[in-house]
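Help needed: design a sequence for this.
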């Protein structure tokens, strides 16, 4: 292995900082916007059950694998594979990861921009006495405002990445994530105490397996990967900033549990309200933006809560977009040898340009469709349901079959200083269970095999 110069790389300052940053990447619009909307479209309970199974048999092991690769290599996603497997084509995983970062950030920044508009709407009391669906539709289909917010959001993302890993990413996440958690809890209580809330809980937690198709199973896999930020190297990049004495297994488990808990709570916040207020669980990407304002109007001090909530949602999105941009910036600065600052500016502008098309696909470009999907839908579908699962599969195959068990053991146990109770299980999962499960879901949903 080439000699790595650790001296000039930034790293996370504390154990809690690591968890906060990784959880900051994981927890975001994926939990609060995407999980409810995809669960709603996919029929609820049975989808949720399959999603949970994927989190634990695929998600946690893949996250841990990414940490191992990143911390061992001390490099960006692309460079990590170049260093760990010189002369072999595994760096293709890194290239796929870069493409995924581009795609995801492009459409993610559209929705992140929506959260900014909703902060302003909340402050100006813009929901009061209005039909929230009409408000949402008229904003979404306008041209200028969504583009402006997306630009501002990309600017904020670039600005934080600009300030570097420790001062930028770590500082903000540490405080704001726990706050978001408590606010969601409060809103769950309000949602659950609405008349007719029980139906929503039933929808979310009572599995109806007649709703399950292989397409739905693939959605669940994609959502699990998307929500945990796995399969494209964001966590390889972050893993490279984790200090050598960190217990990686514990970190992966804690981050995954926190992420899953927040997604489920978001479901409990949304669906009882959806049913109680007679809204449509299949409303698609606009679901939470239509439901939440209604919920706030029914809450004591809803005005204040709505402002705080949309600010925190924007921050949660920001800590995720930062991790996406960081993938590109770490790559460009370490591999292409341009300065971090230049890499940030160029990367952010390039992604923003693709993002403009994603945003316009709700308005001026809404008629541009392929397989009945808009450009936004395509970016979302291809990254979550194809690039991330394929990336996740390649990552566990690389680690399980080509990396060497001894090296994995050393990295996971911090050179033998930690007790490793589940090492055998972990190896078994990354060698067999996770790759086979992902492959089966793919082959079935494409229709190559039929179970
Ligand atoms: N996990 C993030 C979310 O749930 C999105 C994300 C995906 C971030 C992939 C980084 C990489 O919002």
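Sure. Designed sequence:
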């Amino acid at each position: 292995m080439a000699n790595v110069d650790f001296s000039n790389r930034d790293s996370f300052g504390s154990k809690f900082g690591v968890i906060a940053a990784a959880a900051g990447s994981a927890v975001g619009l994926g939990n609060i916007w995407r999980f409810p909307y995809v669960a709603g479209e996919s029929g609820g309970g049975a989808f949720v059950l399959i999603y949970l199974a994927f989190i634990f048999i695929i998600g946690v092991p893949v996250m841990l694998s990414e940490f191992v690769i990143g911390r061992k290599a001390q490099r960006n996603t692309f460079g990590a594979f170049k260093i760990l497997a010189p002369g072999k084509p595994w760096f293709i995983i890194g290239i796929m990861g870069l493409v995924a970062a581009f795609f995801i950030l492009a459409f993610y920044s559209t929705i992140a921009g929506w959260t900014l508009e909703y902060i302003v709407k909340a402050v100006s009391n813009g929901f009061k006495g209005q039909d929230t669906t009409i408000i949402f539709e008229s904003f979404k289909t306008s041209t200028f405002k969504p583009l402006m917010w997306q630009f501002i959001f990309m600017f904020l993302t670039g600005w934080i990445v600009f300030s570097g890993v420790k001062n930028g990413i770590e500082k903000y996440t540490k405080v704001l994530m726990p706050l978001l958690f408590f606010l969601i809890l409060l809103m769950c209580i309000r949602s659950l105490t609405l008349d007719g809330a029980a139906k929503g809980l039933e929808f979310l937690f009572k599995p109806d397996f007649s709703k399950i198709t292989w397409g739905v199973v693939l959605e669940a896999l994609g959502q699990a990967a998307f929500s945990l930020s796995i399969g494209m190297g964001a966590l390889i990049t972050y893993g490279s900033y984790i200090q050598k004495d960190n217990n990686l297994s514990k970190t992966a488990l804690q981050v995954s549990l926190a992420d899953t808990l927040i997604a489920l709570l978001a479901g409990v916040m949304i669906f009882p309200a959806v049913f109680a207020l007679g809204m449509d669980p299949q409303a698609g990407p606009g679901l939470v933006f239509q439901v939440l304002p209604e919920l706030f109007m029914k809450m004591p001090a809803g005005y204040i809560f709505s402002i705080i909530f949309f600010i925190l949602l924007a921050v949660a999105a920001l800590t995720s977009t930062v991790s996406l941009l960081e993938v590109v910036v770490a790559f460009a600065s370490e591999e292409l040898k341009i300065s971090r600052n230049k890499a940030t500016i160029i990367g952010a502008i390039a992604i923003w340009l693709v993002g403009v098309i994603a945003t316009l696909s709700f308005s001026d470009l809404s008629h541009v469709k392929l397989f009945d999907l808009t450009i936004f839908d395509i970016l979302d579908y291809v990254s979550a349901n194809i690039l991330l699962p394929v990336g996740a599969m390649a990552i566990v195959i690389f680690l399980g079959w080509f990396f060497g068990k001894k090296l994995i053991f050393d990295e996971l146990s911090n050179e033998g200083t930690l007790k490793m109770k589940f090492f055998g299980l972990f190896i078994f999962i990354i060698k067999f269970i996770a790759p086979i499960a992902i492959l089966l879901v793919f082959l079935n949903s494409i229709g190559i095999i039929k179970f």
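The pocket of phenylalanine is lined by residues 25-26, 28-31, 104, 226-227, 229, 232, 234, 320, 323-324 (CB under 6 Å).
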